[in-house]
Design brief:
The chain is mainly alpha-helical. It has one domain: Up-down Bundle (Growth Hormone, Chain: A). It has 18 helices and no strands. The chain is globular and about 50 Å long.
Length: about 400
């Protein structure tokens, strides 16, 4: 009797492994990505200027950082799968608040959304540490970035089009829908904390303990600091690129397309991953941060010519993809197995800290200067990151 075998790709996505994790991260990216251009434009409409948007993101991120640091406590009090469910619930419940299109609804919705996204990201990274071998991480990170690159290209434009040609509330409920799909796929995989690979958790649940332990380890501090710079630059891009387009006289669709075009640079992260393995992550990151800094400063210099500024900004995105090619490898290779849960929560705060610090800095800058100063300031920050990237261990 002839035996029929399922396709290789089907087997890869129905079992726990690199490709199934990549699918989970794609769904997580879609949940965030459909709102990435919608929320800044809604905030601009409600607050009337870019400085008001900066203050909004600064205030929201304070609550998000506190929520992120509480995740280790939740993971130790509940099973990780239930924390995943809680994260998805927060993402879903944020939709009706967003859909109200009021200042209060926007603030509450954003706090819930950012807290849920951060919690979900922490849980996914913990499962990666449980199930992906350390030697495979340098190959998995570029694969993850390649898969999520597709989502980042599609999601921003999808969110804009859903709001314009569907209904104003549709992008927000679509975000919740993607989160629910992720949760369904997660339960389909029946993923558990591997009792062999999962580390023993600390008896300490005080978030400040994990913060102290994290910042007592120089390699983890460096990985976090560089990740803040990377997240900060993409925060600047996702928030201020649509605002730049709209204030230059373009429509909201143009802002969505710019974000999508910039996100398309993630398709070459596998190439940068190969460069990192061939020549070392330190060289890759130093030159990557340096190039992003130079291009971003040039955007500010050319801001009076919008199409030239946008072209240079997209070149900066290509350079930023080199940084993404390294992914979270500096952290994943430095964290100790017995401290994964707490250290991952602290490291994952880099995204929320970036959302806190960068808009705070820009709120001050915009109080004195116009929008081009945002890009010049961001470029200077990236040049600073290039200096610190020189301290990455050579063996990485």
């Amino acid at each position: 009797m002839r035996q029929f075998h399922s396709p290789v790709w089907l087997s890869a996505v129905t079992t726990t492994g690199s490709y199934s994790f990549a699918v989970l991260f794609v769904l997580e990216t879609f949940s965030r990505g459909v709102l990435i251009a919608v929320v800044p434009l809604l905030a601009l409409e409600l607050f009337s200027n870019a400085q008001g948007v900066s203050v909004f993101y600064f205030a929201v991120s304070i609550a998000a950082v506190l929520g992120t640091l509480a995740v280790p406590w939740l993971v130790q009090r509940l099973q990780r799968r239930w924390v995943m469910c809680l994260a998805v619930f927060l993402l879903c419940i944020s939709a009706p608040f967003f859909a109200s299109q009021t200042v209060v609804g926007l603030v509450v919705g954003m706090v819930l959304h950012v807290s849920g996204a951060a919690t979900l990201s922490i849980c996914l990274n913990l499962y990666v540490l449980d199930h992906i071998q350390p030697k495979v991480l340098t190959r998995f990170e570029p694969l993850r970035m390649l898969f999520t690159g597709t989502a980042w290209v599609i999601a921003p434009v999808l969110g804009i089009y859903l709001g314009k040609y569907g209904a104003s509330w549709l992008p927000f409920f679509a975000s919740g829908g993607f989160a629910l799909t992720l949760l369904g796929y997660f339960w389909f995989l029946r993923m558990t904390e591997n009792p062999i690979l999962a580390p023993l958790t600390s008896s300490t649940t005080n978030p400040l303990y994990f913060v102290r332990r994290y910042f007592a380890q120089p390699r983890l501090v460096l990985a976090w600091f560089l990740a803040v710079g990377r997240s900060g630059w993409w925060t600047m891009f996702f928030v201020y690129a649509p605002i730049y387009a709209v204030t230059a006289g373009m429509d909201a669709e143009a802002g969505g397309w710019i974000v999508s075009a910039g996100s398309a640079s993630l398709f070459i992260v596998t190439f940068w991953g190969w460069i990192g393995r061939r020549f070392g992550l330190r060289r890759l990151l130093v030159w990557g941060y340096l190039a992003v800094g130079i291009f971003t400063i040039a955007v500010g210099m050319a801001a009076d010519t919008p199409w030239l500024g946008i072209t240079i900004l997209l070149c900066a995105c290509l350079a930023a993809s080199a940084i993404d090619g390294a992914g979270n490898v500096p952290f994943l290779r430095a964290v100790r197995s017995r401290e994964r849960s707490g250290m991952t929560a602290v490291f994952s705060s880099n995204r929320d800290i970036a959302r806190l610090i960068i808009p705070g800095i820009f709120a001050l800058v915009l109080n004195l200067y116009t929008l081009p100063a945002v890009f010049i300031t961001s470029g200077i920050i990236m040049l600073t990151m290039a200096i610190y990237a020189r301290y990455i261990p050579r063996r990485l």
